[in-house]
Amino acid sequence: MSFASSQPRPMRRAEREVTDPAQIEQILRDCDDMRVAYQDAQGLTIVPVNFAYTADFGTTPHRLTLFAHSAVEGRKIDAIRAAGNALPVAFEMDCDTRIHTGHTPCATTTEFRSLVGTGTASLVDDVEEKIAALRLLLEQCAGMPDAPLLPRQVSKVAVWRIDAIDFKAKHHPAPARHRD
C-alpha cells in the first residue's frame, strides 16, 4: 500500500488553513493526544495515543516527526512489522473544540484548531534514540524534562515514530457574535 503521488489537495476553506510555523507549533503543543489510523490484516483501525514531536519549519517542505510509545506487543506493533517497518498511516489531533449553537440548527458550528496528515510509522530500535524519544514524550506530555531512563527500562516499551509526509493545520475560530 502506498500514498497517492499527486500533489496534496488544497484545503477547501483556505481562509482556515494555518500556515504560520509558530501557530502550527502552538497547535502541536496544545494538543494532548492524536489519533493514528492504519490498515492491517484485520482491516482499518484508529487508535488514540499520547505523542511528542520534533519539527523543522525552516525547511521546504516542513519536517514533522511524531513519537509515541506502546507495549512491545500488539496490533500496532504487528502492523508496523508486517509492513517492513514502514507502515502508511494517517493522523489527526485537535484542541480547543467548542460547539457554538446558532439561531437555527444549520447555524450551529464548532470552533477548533487541528492538524491532520499522513506519514510512515516505524519502530525505533536504537536504544539511545528510544531514550531520547521517551524523554521527549515525558517532557512534552508530563512536564518531566530530563527524566532519568535506563536502557533496561526502555527495553520494556516500544517506541515508534511517524515521519510526516504531508500535513495541514486548520483553525476554525468562534463565530462572531451578532447583535439583534
What's the layout of helices and strands?
Blueprint: E1 17-18, H1 21-30, E2 33-40, E3 43-50, E4 52-56, E5 63-70, H2 75-82, E6 87-100, E7 109-123, H3 127-142, H4 151-154, E8 158-172
Protein name: MFS transporter
Organism: Bifidobacterium anseris
Key terms for this structure?
Pnp Oxidase, Chain A, 8 strands, alpha+beta, 180 residues, globular, eight-stranded antiparallel sheet
Largest sheet: 8 strands, antiparallel
Total number of strands: 8
- What CATH calls the topology is Pnp Oxidase, Chain A
Secondary-structure element series: EHEEEEHEEHHE
> What is the molecular shape?
globular
Summarize the structure in words:
The protein has one domain (15-172): Roll (Pnp Oxidase, Chain A), CATH 2.30.110. The chain has helices at residues 21-30, 75-82, 127-142, 151-154, and strands spanning 17-18, 33-40, 43-50, 52-56, 63-70, 87-100, 109-123, 158-172. It is globular, with a radius of gyration of 18 Å. The chain is an alpha+beta fold and 180 residues long. Strands 1, 2, 3, 4, 5, 6, 7 and 8 form an 8-stranded antiparallel beta sheet that branches.
